[in-house]
Amino acid sequence: MKSSQPPVLPTKLLQWLASGPHGDAVAGDLTEQYQQGRSAAWYWRQALLAIVVSFAKDRTLGGSAILGFLLVILLIVVSVLRHSASLGAGLLITDLALLSGYGAFAIWVWRQRRPESRDALTVGAQTALILAVVLVTSHAIEWFALFESRTAQLVRGAGSVLLMLALLGAAGSAAWQRTRSNMLAVIAGLWCGSLATLILLSFALTLNLAFPAHAASWLHEAFVASGMTDAGAFVVRNSLEAASEILVRMPVAALLLGFCGALSNALITGRSRTVAVVAAWFTPFIFIAGATALWYANSLERAARPPFVMAGILAAGIALCGAHPIWSSLSRRHRELPHGA
Amino acid sequence: MLALIRLGDAAYGVPISKAIEESTRREVLVGSVYAALERLEEKGFVASEVGEPTPERGGRAKRYFRITEKGLRQVRHTRSALIKLWQGIPALQGETR
Lengths: 341, 97
Hints:
The complex is a heterodimer of chains A (341) and B (97). With 341 residues, chain A is an all-alpha fold. Chain A has helices at 8-17, 23-35, 40-57, 62-82, 90-110, 115-143, 150-179, 182-210, 212-218, 220-226, 231-268, 273-299, 306-336. Chain A folds into 2 domains: 8-52, no CATH class; 58-258. Chain B has helices at residues 2-7, 13-24, 30-42, 69-87; strands spanning 46-53, 61-67. Chain B is an alpha+beta fold and 97 residues long. In chain B, strands 1-2 form a two-stranded antiparallel ribbon. In chain B, strand 1 (46-53) and strand 2 form a beta hairpin. Chain B is built from 4 helices and 2 strands; from the N terminus they run H-H-H-E-E-H. Chain B is elongated and about 55 Å long. The interface between A and B is medium-sized, with 27 and 23 residues.
């Protein structure tokens, strides 16, 4: 048996990076086998591959989010360095500060060991992937100007926002259903929003870097109106502004809707079937009222829109937050009915 | 799961990995063994508990695994399914024993 300790670096990496409930046991097993005569190369290989396996099997996507966070930082820094002479540091610092919050959250998720927390975060991650597909598709359609009519733009914009509200609410509702905890439901909603934001930002910033000429032509009108002289720098400034906007808005929306989803589920679950049926009939009317307010807002001057937009989003958001609990409650009761009943 | 049944009360990461290595004659990734055990644990086929920390493991505790009743039923079911499959191949008759 060896008396020396195993290599320090892979041990530390394993300790910091390996997630899951058995992280400590894996490190202990590797140390024990090293003491029994395994080589340092074997130890390194096992430790690094254990980290890779741990990343791949982590359903909370905490490790992937850390990589996504680093990718977004890298993309922002590269974009800014290309036009550093025309850009101030203020926007960059704001974005990096906001992103550091996302990074800290991802590290916290990555290090979670409690099964109920991991359950809630897994729900958040699964919903985030669907939300990311929605947001990325909407951005790609807008960026490549696939549908240029005003109605098509409205349907795309409103559709993606409404789906976002529904998915953030569903994340909170589904997490509450699994854990019966409002706090974990809100965290699941937040995780859903954060992860989807990181995916969207990675996609949008990569597009801007990969197709700079198209990005400049896409924003040409706004560039002319801005008075700036460097079209590339304008694209980067626009990206940074849009990034800071979504980095602030998404957690607020996720917090509220995650909580609404949990609350709706708590109110509907455990009550009689009549409550779920009444909610199922009543909710579409609230949604239609919200959608009508949004539609009406679109016909007004920009300055007159905010109250109708806010009221529309609130009503539609509340209705959409109820969608998952109602569907879940009715389908569960349907399954519980005896055959032939 | 067969390795867990063979090892009984002594089933933790190191002997499980060694048992698989001996039977397959290939190097086993300890991380992959735990990933598989974690999935089996989620399905209720396997249960685990933490042992005492020991100095030769750098002060880290062992995690002992044992097969559950549900897991045992699944092993029996898989065995009978495999036997049926082998019996369907005339050229391999008698080689399952």
